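Appendix C reproduces, verbatim, an entry submitted by the partner laboratory led by Prof. M.T., so that reviewers can inspect both the input and the predicted structure.
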Amino acid sequence: MLPDGKILCRYPYRRFLRVIQVGNPYLDDYKNEKGNLEFLWTHGVISDEAWAGILANCTFGPSDDWQCFVAAHPPEGQFDKYNIYAPICLQKPNTGIYYSSSYLAGYDPCGPHYVEAYLNNPEVQDALHTRANTRWSACNLDLPYNDGPVSVVPTISRLIQRGLSVWIFRYPSSDVH
């Protein structure tokens, strides 16, 4: 739209917007789940046997059932799903002591545990005037993720049909999209 209110074309963004770049996009629930598992398999985090079980039990669609869930969550060990090469946080048996599996400058995988211990310190709770007898955590993983569509592939298809170039790229060490 021009300053005087006149419209130059039906889709004014076409005049200025030529390309959209999307990094590590969450495109589609089912495609992402398959991509996450395939990434872990091709990087040696999931064994060939576990991958065969996943392919035998999963269609990566809304009809997948408990057998697919069990196959897709094998007990392969611990890793950081945001960077499979990063150290992980370990706990000494029968203690509340946490430590990193290895050193990576500027990165501490045990940070959330320190935050939780800090937030539950009675002196800190008193200083923050929090409710008594409340257990605080660094992150609540029980909240459902339901603020987005199952798939944004139709939206990307519409953008391409209208003449925009869409570049999708992925950071190579992340399992999470």
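The longest helix spans residues 29-42. Additional entries are available on request from the coordinating office.
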